[in-house]
Amino acid sequence: MSWTNALRGAGGQIELNRVVGFIGGMAYIAGAHVFIAWDMLAHQREFDLAGYCTLFPAGLAIVAGGTAVAVAVKDRNVATARSIDKASGATTAEQAV
């Protein structure tokens, strides 16, 4: 099993929503730590473990939740469109015309 399987949808193709969510999550993880380091070094502040443990997971949950909602809405809309096509009896050859 490859790590790219997490980026693949039901059709087996890599989906844009999942890629954007993955990149956003990685950017959040790296960016949060860079800003914490900047705050500590530039402003001579001490590391606040309680604040970090409270806010970092919450932000990561927002990024992951937003991605999950976007993927779920897209998957639901695709499933709805496929069921409408199946109910109307249209084939892919008829749709291409």
Task: Output the keywords.
97 residues, mainly alpha, 3 helices, elongated
Summarize this, please?
The protein contains three helices and no strands. Helix content is 74%, strand content 0%.
Explained architecture:
The chain starts with 15 loop residues before the first helix and ends with a helix. The protein is mainly alpha-helical and 97 residues long. It has helices at residues 16-42, 49-88, 92-96. α1 runs antiparallel to α2 (49-88). Helices cover 74% and strands 0% of the residues.
Topology, pairings included?
Elements (H helix, E strand, L loop, with lengths): L15 H27 L6 H40 L3 H5 L1
Class from helix and strand fractions:
mainly alpha
Low-confidence stretches: none
Secondary-structure element order, N to C: HHH
Mean pLDDT comes to 86
Net shape: elongated
Biggest beta sheet summary: none
Count every beta strand, where a strand is a DSSP E run of 2 or more residues: 0
Rg, Å, rounded: 21 Å
Number of helices in the DSSP assignment: 3
- Share of helix among residues? over 70%
The fraction of residues assigned to DSSP E strands is under 5%
Distance between the termini: 39 Å
